Amino acid sequence: MSFEFLTPVSEEVIMHASLLADQTIGSQIEIHSQEQGIPDLEGVKIALIGVSENRNDVNFQYGEIDFDAIRKSLYELYLGNWNTKIIDLGDITPGDEVADTYYVMKEVMADLLRKDIIPVILGGSQDLTFAQYRAYDVMEKMVNLVNVDSRFDLGDSVQDINNRSFVSKIIVERPYNLFNYSNLGYQTYFNSQEEINLIEKLYFDAIRLGEIIADISVVEPVMRDADIVSVDLSAINSTVLSFNTSSPNGFNGREICAIARYAGISDKVSSFGIYEFSNFEGEETTAALIAQIIWYFIEGVNYRSNEINIKNQPTTLHYKVPIDDDILSFYKSSRTGRWWIEIPFIASGNNKLKRHTLLPCTYKDYEGACNQEMPERWYKAKQKNEV
Question: How far is CA 299 from CA 84, 231, 325, in A?
C-alpha cells in the first residue's frame, strides 16, 4: 500500500475540526492524524488528498504550499443530505525530484481507484494532472479528460513538462489511454491559432467561456462522459480570486460551483483535481471558494443516477433518426430525461474502446438530427473510433 508516503493533516487543522458543530464536515470526516494514523477505507467513497508540488509551474517561485486554510473552510461547511463516507488522507509532500512526486501521487491514486474511491486532489501546479491521468494505467481502459481552464495547456511535447504543456505529454506518452480531451472555458486570446487548429485536428472538444456563461447546461453532457476532471483556478475571474495568474474574464463563484456539481453527478467521473493553488496573504476568500467547489462536487456524487448502462435498462426510450447515409440511435432515460447517442464501434481489436460506443448528448442534439443536422460531438467521436 502506497499510503506510507502520506503525511498527516496538521494538528492545528485537527484542533480546529474538534471545535466544530456536530453536523459539519469537520465533525464527520475521518482524518489522517499523527495519533490515529490512516483512516479505515471500508465504505469510503471520497478521499481528500493534498499534493504540495509546484516546481513545474512556469512562474515558479520558491515557497512551500499548505492547504490548512482550505481544509478549515471545508470542515466548517455543513453536510448536505448525504450518505457518502469521506476521509482526509493528508498530503503528499514534494519528493527529491518532481518525477518522484508524480510517482507517489500516481500510486496513491491507483490504490484508491482500485477500491472504487474517488480521489479529490488539492494541488499546486496543474502539471500534476499528468500523474492524475497516469494513475489510470492500472485500469487498462481508455479515459476521457476534462480540463476546466482558460488555456488548452498543450504546449510543446518535446520540451520538459510544465503546467502549460502537460496535455501534450498525456497525448504522446505511452501507454496511450486518452480517448478524448475536452476543455471547458477557454479564452481565445490565451491560445495560439496553432493550438486551436490542433484541437480541431485531433477531434477534441473545446467550449468557449462565453458559450458556457450563456448556458451552463452545455457542460453537463461533457462531464457525463468524463473520467478525469482537472480544474485550473485561473479559469476563475480575478474579481473572485486575487491570484496573479487570474484574468479579468473567467467563471464566477456560482458558475464554477455548478460545473463542480455537474462533475459530481456524472456516473463516470472517478477523480477530481483542483490545481494552481498557492499560499498568499489574504487567501481566506480563495480557500472558502475552493471548499465550496469541493462541497458541490460531493453533493453531486450523492445524487448520481447510476445510468452508465442506460442502453440495457428496460425503461430506456430508443429513437432512430435517419440522416444522410446514417441512422442515428438516440437513447433517453425515462427517469432523469438525459440523452445519449450511439457511436458505431469499429472492430479494431482495441478492447479499450468498446465502452465509448454510447456518447452523452442533449435533447437539442436529437432535435437537430431530426432537422438533418449532424451532432458535432458524435461526428468527432466517430472519427476518433475510426482512427
Answer: 9, 17, 43
